[in-house]
Amino acid sequence: MDGGEQGLLRTEPVPEEGEDVAATISATETLSEEEREELRRELAKVEEEIQTLSQVLAAKEKHLAEIKRKLGINSLQELKQNIAKGWQDVTATSARSKLLAAESELLCLLY
C-alpha cells in the first residue's frame, strides 16, 4: 500500500456495542462527575425501557400465536398462503407486462 492510500484508512478506534461512553471520549473532553452520573442514570433508564419493550413484544408474540392457534393457522398454511400470493403477484405482473407490450405494439402500428 502506498502513502496515498494510507490516508483513506481510519486509525481511530470504533467503540463496541455496550462500551462505556466515557471511554470513547478523547482526553481533551473529560466529563465532570455530575455529567458522568447523569449519563449513568440515562443509561439505566434506556436499559429499563429496552427491557420493558422486550417484555411487551414477547407478550404480543404469545398473543399472536394464540390467535393463530384458535384460527387453525399453522406454519405450513402460512407458507402456502405466501407462495400463492407470490405466484398471484408474478402472474399479474406477467399479464400486465404482456398487455403493455401489446398496447405499445398496437400504438406503433397506428402511427
UniProtKB/TrEMBL annotation:
Ion transport among keywords: no
GO cellular component: cytoplasm
Keyword entries, A-Z: Coiled coil
Region entry Disordered, spans: 1-40
TM annotation in the entry: none
GO biological process: B cell differentiation
Coiled-coil blocks: none
Entry similarity comment: Belongs to the TPD52 family.
Protein name: Tumor protein D52
